[in-house]
Amino acid sequence: MRRRIRAIAIPLAAVAVAACLPAQAPAAERPANPSNLSSVFASAAPGDVVVLASGNYGTFEGGHKPGVVTLRPAPGAQVTIELNFRNASNIAVVGIQNITEAWLEGSQTKNITVRGSYFSGQTTFRTGSLQNANILFDGNRHGPWSTCSGCTEARMWFPQKTSQPSGITVQNSVFGPGGDSDGIQNGSRGTQILNNTFVGITQKSGGLAHADAIQLYGSSNTVIRGNFFLDVSNCLMAPDGADHEIYEDNVCVQKVGNGTVGAMQLGSDDGSRIVHNTFYDSGGRDCDYNTRCGIMSFGAKDGDPAPSGTVVRDNIVAELSQFSSSQSQSYNLFTSDSRNGSGNIFGRPSYVGGARPMTKAGYRLAPGSIGKGAASDGLDMGARISVAPGGSTPPPAPGGSTGNSGRPGVRLLSGRKALRRRGRIRLRVTSAAAGRVVLVAAVRPKARRNGRPVRLGPKTLRFARAGSRVVKLRASRDARRRLRAWGKPRLVVRTFGGPGRRQPTGTFAFRVRR
């Protein structure tokens, strides 16, 4: 049986209109320099990438775009810029070497991403006007900024709170080491602080700031999860009140001789959850005033309301100070002063990284350790730590400072000419901890039919302390002949740590240009 195909009449006018519609322009790279950035950005369409030449761009105010426009440096370019987003939207800023200051404000400021950049100055979120803003700061480094007389005292500042969540996430970033300021001071609602490293943020004798890794001041519903605090005076300070905060899967290691009394201080707490965290206790009185490190401190200031409804569960902690009957605790591993409670145990845990690990992954409980499988959910007590790396790798500080603590950073320094002529690549490798980093690299052709990859390495680097090193990897003479035939090769670098090169710690991909 034949099917009848019904003809559909389309008005000629509609065909004429369709023919006159302009074709959507494909995404493009738009070069810019300090003299024309504003006009280039104004003409950019959604999906376009504004490629910045070297230079100081002063203050960039952005603007509104119907879709995301990205700003990034040209390969090898060194860019300095200040971000001042007051009612700006759909902007991504990626890989800037020096952001001197950032200010975000306004109810129309939404859909902003800043990734893989270095901040030498302060970042301010006016969270009285930022609500459900969809702002992401990912894989950045916030350097050793110091407050001044009359300045606020945090590298990242959230000063206000509204009835709506801020919609801001700060993740996979590094704060410190050094400087005289808090890492983050938060007074907003619902801000998320995830998987960051706070290193070397300590009180300075005669300093202008009460330098805490994170201070909560008037905030509520903050999510502080998966962070690593290393050699800090204290990890979380909230003596003036905490409101339904969530503090989970963090590892807190105070600095010997500079740790304040209380790795975490929550005053007048109302209903916060403190679950599956590790507060390191060496077993000695290593913190200020001859006290143990790794103490959780509660209570309230004179005239402030008493704490109520706090849940403390599945943690490794030295002791609980000023804990009241209106708060609940269970299934905790106490290392200094035990408390009665369902599932609580007392003893000294063993970590896979040794006595005092310098990486977050090192604080997983070792096989056979007390607290292994003893949490309320059947998992280990303390922070639930994944062994797989994830997220963005923060950039090194200018001048080659440390990379992300516990996970190396890798940056490509050479171009295609050196690779094709001499079969050589140069990499800068950064590490925020002593230890060994093993590099394995492979150069791949743009199209697989052009040949098999060329392997470079392995190369083992040993860091006596946190720092940065430049390393050269070379291909064999036979491999160099193959490299000369490839137009735009790709470089993939894998890093490994731990004994025997068994633990992968990162993967980095580059397009070899120039």
Description:
There is one protein chain. Among the domains are: about 115-365; about 410-510, Sandwich (Immunoglobulin-like), CATH 2.60.40. About 5% of the residues lie in helices and about 35% in strands. The protein contains 4 helices and 43 strands. A 13-stranded parallel β-sheet has the order 1-2-4-6-8-11-14-17-20-24-28-31-34, with helices on one face. An 11-stranded parallel β-sheet has the order 3-5-7-10-13-16-19-22-26-30-33, with no helix packed on it. It has a 7-stranded parallel β-sheet with strand order 9-12-15-18-21-25-29, with no helix packed on it. The radius of gyration is 26 Å and the shape is globular. It starts with 11 loop residues before the first helix and ends with a strand.
| Beta strand count | 43
Q: Work out the helix count.
A: 4
Side by side, the strands of the main sheet go 1-2-4-6-8-11-14-17-20-24-28-31-34
Radius of gyration: 26 Å
What's the main sheet like? 13 strands, parallel
**Mean pLDDT, all residues:** 84
The share of residues in helices is under 10%
Distance between the termini: 64 Å
Shape: globular
Q: How big a fraction of the residues is strand? A: 35-45%
Low-confidence stretches: 1-23, 400-406
Q: Tell me which oligomeric state these chains represent.
A: single chain
Structural class: mainly beta
